[in-house]
Amino acid sequence: MFEDDETLQMYIEESLEHLGDIESDLLSIEETGENIDLDLVNNVFRAAHSIKGGAGFMGLTTIKELAHHLENALGLIRNHELTPESSRINVLLKGFDELENLLNNIQTSNETDISHHIQDLEKITRSSLPEEKQDMATQRVDIILKDQRIFPRVSLYDLEQCRVEGKNVFLVEYDLITDIHRKGKNPLEVLHSLQKTGTIIDCRIDFDCVGTLNQPLDSFQIPFQVLFASIIEYDMAETLFDISNQYIHAVTDKMTAPSTADQAHAQPAAMQAKEAVAMPDSNAVPPLTTEAPAAQSVPVQNDVPAQDGSPAMKQAAKPAGTSENDIQLGQKSQSSLRVNVGLLDTLMTLAGELVLGRNQLLQGINSANTKATELSSQRIDMITSELQEAIMRTRMQPIANILNKFSRVVRDMSHQLGKSIDLQIIGKEVELDKTILEAINDPLTHLVRNSVDHGIETPMEREQMGKDATGTITLKAFHDAGQVNLIISDNGRGLAPEKIAAAAIAKGLITEQQVAEMSEKAKMELIFLPGFSTASEVTDVSGRGVGMDVVVTNIQSLGGIIELDSTPGQGTDIQIKLPLTLAIIPSQITSVGNERYALPQVNLNELLRIPAAQVKEKIEKVGDAAVVRLRGELLPLLNLAQMLGIEKTFTDPATLEEQRDRRTSLADRRSRKHLTAQEASASEPVAEQEERSGKDRRYRASSAMNIAVVSAGTFKYGLVVDQLHDSEEIVVKPVGRHLKKCSAYAGATIMGDGKVALILDISNLAQTAELAAVSEAGQMARAAEEEARTQKDKAALLTFKNTDTGHFAAPLNLVERIERINTADIERIGGKKVVQYRGGALPLYELSQVADFDPLPEKERQEVIVFKVKDRELGLMVTPPVDTMEVVLDVDETTLKQPAINGSMIINGHTTLLVDIFEMVKALNPEWFAQETRAAADMAQNGEKILLFAEDSAFFRNQVKKYIEDGGFKVIEAEDGRLAWELLKERIDEIDLVVTDLEMPNMDGFELTRRIKNDPRFSHLKVIALTSLASDAHIEKGKSVGIDAYEIKLDREKLIAVIRQYLNLSRK
Amino acid sequence: MADEITKDTAAQSLEFSTFYVGGALCGINILNIQEINKHFDITRVPQAADHVKGILNLRGRIVTIIDLGAKLGLEPVTENKDNRNIIVNSEDEHIGLLVDAIKDVVSARQDAIEPSPSNIGGVKGKFFQGVLKTDKDLIGILDIDEVLKE
Q1: Verdict on whether the full-model pTM lies above 0.90
Q2: Number of C-beta neighbours around residue B66 at 10 A
Q3: Which of residues 620-659 of A touch B (CB under 8 A)?
Q4: Which of A588, A690, A691, B123 is such that its CA lies 20 to 30 A from the CA of B107?
Q5: Which CATH number fits domain B2-147: 2.10.270.10, 2.40.50.100, 2.40.50.180, 1.10.3720.10?
Q6: Which residues pair with A903 in a beta bridge?
Q7: Is the interface score ipTM higher than 0.90?
Q8: Other Cβ atoms within 10 Å of A534 Cβ, number
Q9: Tens of pLDDT, residues A63-72
């Protein structure tokens, strides 16, 4: 066989390239049927032809044979002698498949049995021929030259065919040495140029004429015979072939003779050639041993400088052999890559610049020139980025490489299943990293097969459903947000969520209860569960032992995401998002203890930081699991330190307790393990203690909680880490075999300082932590919390301090704003403090004026909370920190009751006093309330109005009742909606207005209102709803049941105003 | 060269790098050793087996460091200035063995190595290719593949 690596390699690559497009071309040919598109057929024909030409030259007999038969069949199609029916195209497709297979295993190709392909192909070609010609298709003839040399085994049919086309047939004898090598050509080029002007029927190297070593050098020759058909006449041939006329033989009928000894000719031609060398003509003057040409090739080269390194020489001289070299060659062909020359040039330029940059840097360092060093480091930084990008681009391959083959997959499968399917491929030019491309091949094939097998219905079913009998599958690739998106959609029957859920229950994958809580989408996503397969019978088409779970795992391991969307009866869309490359990934660097961990950006949703003061309040514990509330959603938390069994670094002894608290609240099921980890590290506490006290001042910052909100597939959780650092692009490196079992890591990377950081595997971490259980706990928490909300009222409070020790809070809705003023600006007028503020005088007070508290210390600047009462503003001087929070009001109204203080409650571990702003103002400025007092007196004269007030919280009941009574009304109290309803029925004659809380046990405000409004006896009553937080959804719901107005519980003034308005009492 | 080839392998001269681990004196054929260094900027790998000390950046390559003491079932290597990493090449991967201290390189003929007893100083015999007796010491010659087996 042919031995020149380079030429063979080139031939293989070129041939594979030819084959690349054949499949789709053939499919198109099949589609067009009788009205063939000549261009397409010619394309395929030429491909087969070029492959045949090269194979003949290389001695790849099996390939030549197969290509030749393929060519014949295609030639018939081209001449309209054969219609490209499905069955015929099938044979051709299989033939080309085999051809590709042979090319990929070039070393064993000659030994491969292709007889059934040949038979099939011959059957096709013969079927189109008239009777008398049928024999010709298989008949072989030898061409006998004048000097009795033989060009063996030429297909008679080919010769006939050429004659029919009016072509002349020539046998051209090139000499590889003088005609090709010395002219600076190579044999493939020659064949190519010949193909432009005619048809190459066959070619071979005539080893019989190679000659012997004792021949004079000038007569040394290696004839390369090409059997060529062209419309060119004999006299013109010399110019065409660029060789002397004596080597061009016009082939006439007289020269052909039926191939002798058909048995022998069953052996491929090149074998004969080989034999010819192995058994040289005994007449030849001193006979050569079999190996002579090969063994002698080196000395020949030495003796004849002109032939040195001649590829032709080596080709001819080494007739046979499979050395190790050959095997390596076969492998090489699979891993080579075509790179755009422009890109290579760019790389070269960049490499040059890099060297330049390095020189500058070295110079700068040697001369200790900081400026120059900085400049060159910037330059190197830039070049490196460009270089990285350019090198990445060399790895990029168009996705067409894998998408194209699906036409065939879909065609074959739909034939097999009796379906009619149209495949559309969009975005073939999208490029992806080679490794990713290879890795998504299998998952994609599975998905496409699924679509064909389970998605698209049979034509009959489709017609019954009123759909086009032909189904459509669309493969679409596009770039979006730095990711590659792949969508596989079909317009088939879609997924049936109920069926899937039922199957999942039947297989014991989930419980009925779980299903009951699932959305449609969640039910469909059950097909991603391991052990799930909906096909009632496993067909050999898509049931290949791989489930959707494997697809999901594969895609996730590539850092990709898969999403499912389906409408029953309409079709299914599966969307896959993939990163462009795997080798370098942007990551968020975090740290726990002394180690850094990289978190792939693709998994990262957001970063959360919970200040130390809010940790207790924001982190909740549900069962054993910790959760954090993030925009109304409960997010399970995983403590990375705990997961990995790392002891956290404490920074302040004072926080130790708090940290422990947090730990317990964060403890998941693995808490016991965590404890042992703590015990294990008990030997270190001394060192830690020192470290802690040294960093006292950073207490607040460091005890805050840093959470990276991450998601992987269906998991979404918060990962608690010690610190969040920068986002960096990291190079992924594999870890050793001893660490393969540690599923928590996706690999390792080297940081800028040379240390190694582990890359976290977000999905595996979640699985290790049994996060499904955690998220379940989160749902329980939500339910529990819903219940809690109906039981208890939450209110927004502003917390502040009077002196450093006293904690206070006031309703946030009364606060206008918070100011900081210079103490020097405070004026004292008539025993009152005021400050000039927005063109007016703002009266300033402090708590010590109304109740028994310490006076505020003298300071340079003073924080003032500005309240608005009775349309007038007043300032309350306080000590920071001033903060807002939402708390469940659980007020103790007795223990610490004082003037202007409603009561006390515990907020963040401090006993906090609730300031009654109205009481305070009333005590300080009784004249502001004079009008109100008068109105109340008026009302008492005109006959008292009576209000029904329903409220479950004793605190609010007392507070609000007091407001209303102060306004001159009488109040009938009820502890919940049901009692209010009973009272209303009994005392309807007395009641003028209903004021109700919304969230109450037994019967809530909405229900109460609905009953009132739907009962003709009461429907005339106005209903005012009191709420702590009026959300839009609430208001909407309230309106729908007939609530007339919404008021905020602690906004006394507005409440009174609205009550008056509804009772038609205007202020006088 | 030609001489050596013709020699009986039994008489072949071998060189062993010797070192202390958990009080025992062990040796590794120097042909197995890539390098010996004292980089201790080791990144811990939580959840890894106890004998895995961590991973190290060795000129851009991630190298797993194994605490040889812990691996052999002896005392884990205690930190001190004599600690060294012996980087060996095993199954196309570089792996570091953390040892207490490095001693000399000793030469010995192949036939001087005796089969190992079932237990050497508390270490299972399967970890050794054999033992080498010198004037003063008994050196356990480690079977690297066995030691680095999962």
Answers
A1: no
A2: 27
A3: 644-646
A4: B123
A5: 2.40.50.180
A6: A914
A7: no
A8: 16
A9: 888 888 888 8
